[in-house]
Amino acid sequence: MATGWAHEGAVLDQIHDTISDGVEGARARLPQGEGTLECVECGEDIPARRREALPGVTTCIACQSARDRHVMHSMINRRGSKDSQLK
Questions:
Q1: What is the pTM of this model?
Q2: Which of 16, 34, 60, 77 has the smallest CB count inside 10 Å?
Q3: Are 56 and 40 spatial neighbours (Cβ–Cβ below 8 Å)?
Q4: pLDDT at position 4, please?
């Protein structure tokens, strides 16, 4: 499937790298460290089941949902595919 100077399987390698980057990014955004009993933004109690499911969580569901709506993506293609250069 690869053409030109790319080696055979280059497209699959790029897909694999893109997925791996996405997984690493999601893992990096998971809470780490010591969690809190109360939300650091609004002061409401964080339910015990949420603290058990996400060790290290510091926000309640409502505040985390608001944060998640404002996630920014860089849209930078580090691999420099030809498709991104044509846009």
A1: 0.51
A2: 34
A3: no
A4: 66
